[in-house]
Write a structure and sequence with these properties.
Transmembrane segments: 6-24, 36-55, 61-81
Number of domains: 1
InterPro entries: YtpI (IPR025618)
Helix content: over 70%
Pfam family, one: YtpI
Strand content: under 5%
Protein name: YtpI-like protein
Distance between the termini: 49 Å
Order of helices and strands: HHH
Largest sheet: none
Shape: elongated
Number of strands: 0
Keywords: Membrane, Transmembrane, Transmembrane helix
Length: 99
């Protein structure tokens, strides 16, 4: 199952990328959009990390921890997705009024 470590590493790199890009941007709205994307990547990272750990150990304790990580990752990703949609709409509204 080589796909899980690849997704884990890529999502962590994407998370770090967006967190660094937040510091380079001066517009608060685009900072919020990038932060939402970072939360989605963090949720993906946490979820796939938990699944990967269960597949590696396959014990009851690993199952409990994997379910906990999966729940936290889904909450993080869903919250990031909701924030992204909201701030993207605000960004589009602002772009419409500036035309």
């Amino acid at each position: 199952m080589i796909i899980f470590p690849i997704v884990i590493v890529l999502s962590f790199i994407i998370y770090l990328y967006y967190k660094v890009m937040i510091t380079r941007d001066h517009d608060p709205l685009t900072q919020e959009i990038k932060n939402a994307k970072a939360r989605i990547a963090l949720g993906t990272f946490i979820s796939f990390f938990g699944i990967n750990q269960y597949l590696f150990y396959e014990t009851q304790l690993a199952l409990f921890i994997a379910l906990l990580f999966l729940l936290i990752g889904i909450i993080q990703g869903y919250g990031g997705l909701k924030r992204f949609k909201h701030y993207k709409q605000e960004f589009n509204k602002r772009a419409q009024t500036n035309i």
